[in-house]
């Protein structure tokens, strides 16, 4: 599962590992690992990402 923060950063979700995530319906308030700030995040469907973004995310990075 991938997440996008309110600044547009895309990163893989750490399901069950983010102890400081506040669930707000379909969104979460959690730390963005790219900008290191707490932001509203939402799920991103893999089909909405480019092939390059998916390759980066699967390699353990961020898009």
Question: Would you kindly provide a written description of the structure presented here, covering whatever features stand out?
Answer:
It is a single chain. This protein is mostly beta strands and 63 residues long. The protein has one domain. The protein is 13% helix and 35% strand. The protein has one helix and five strands. Strands 2-1-5-4-3 form a five-stranded antiparallel sheet. A hairpin with a 2-residue loop joins strand 3 (22-24) and strand 4. The longest helix is centred in the C-terminal third of the chain and has 8 residues, at 51-58. The mean pLDDT is 87.
Helix content: 10-25%
Number of strands: 5
Provide the gyration radius in Å. Answer: 11 Å
Major beta sheet, specifics? 5 strands, antiparallel
